[in-house]
Amino acid sequence: MGSYSLLGMGIGGFIGGWACDKFGRVRVIVLATISFSILSAYSGFAQSYQEFAILRTLSCLGLGCLYIACNTLMSEYVPTKYRTTVLATLMTGFTLGSLVITMISGWIIPEFGWRMLYWITIAPLALGILMHFMVPEPESWKRVREMKRTGQIVDNDAKKGNPYITILKDKTHGKMFILWSFSSGFLLFGYFGVSNWLPSYLEAELGIKFKEMALYMVGTFITMMFAKIIAGYVADKIGRRIVFAFGTMGTALFIPVVVYMHNADNIGVLMLIFGFLYGIPYAINATYLTESFPTGVRGTAVGGAFNIGRIGAIFAPITIGYLAMNGSIGTGLLVMGAAYFLCGLIPALFIKDRLYDPQKAE
């Protein structure tokens, strides 16, 4: 079922990125929130696996749109001085949401059944409606739209060309798009591989009981939340590039420490340190990526590059599963570490800080 979710989010990210540039960031967020809420809630009425899979895929189209549209919108609202701090804090919502649903599912499912978990997802519908009336489009996007209308900059949509071909034909934008596609692929390959298999590693290969393992993972996720905020603040002070490289390569180098140097006495501390490093890349990625493209193509480029990377997310669990069957989960985690290292190496060598200011019409 996770593969259906990733498929929906990947397609949604591509569509949402293009739609952000064409119709506006806020409009996409509103429509994506409404569609996700309705379809996710309706999933609770599914009567077969096939129905549930279809509804899950369709609902995740909206979720994929939201990730791209929200990051693009916030990057254009917030000044450069505070941008990474704000977007990194926004990223803690993903971790917080995972923790909240984990905790309330233990209460809801025994009392009301699994369907109730999906029925309550209708709640964000109200936020989508409110946003339509309360949140204006960012000024930089409105200025770019006007410049396209008056012919001051080229309107690729008016030419009816493929927006991704147009981006790739531009030497600068095309280079950034390819570099970020590879970096995102390695990031998502490592992130989803670790998040899917680390609990199994703690339980199976380290002999940790399920209840203790859950506590370790909760501690790791809480540490990730603090790490994201701290990393965002530091990145605004010293640069996105260096902090992103520190987080990705630090995660890569610390995975072998967890695999080879753990024992019953130090595993708790090791997991907290790992959680801190593991949380940094996602905190910086949104700002670093959105600042790599001008306003006119930002949504399309960010949505395309990031969601090409979702291919890595699909293959990561499969890769570790294969290595676990023919070796150990620990070996698979080391492969994830290599992916993290490559994810950080590409931007460190080739992608500069603050190439574009999202608050400017470029």
From TrEMBL:
Entry's transmembrane regions: 28-46, 52-74, 86-110, 116-135, 177-194, 214-235, 242-261, 267-289, 301-323, 329-351
Primary subcellular site in the record, as a coarse category: membrane
Annotated localization: Membrane
Cellular compartments per GO CC: plasma membrane
Limits of the Major facilitator superfamily (MFS) profile domain: 1-356
GO molecular function: carboxylic acid transmembrane transporter activity
Tagged with keyword Phosphoprotein: no
Pfam families to which the protein is assigned, alphabetical: MFS_1
Keywords, alphabetical: Membrane, Transmembrane, Transmembrane helix
Membrane topology value: Multi-pass membrane protein
Presence of keyword Ribonucleoprotein: no
Record-given protein name: Major facilitator superfamily (MFS) profile domain-containing protein
Organism: Acinetobacter variabilis
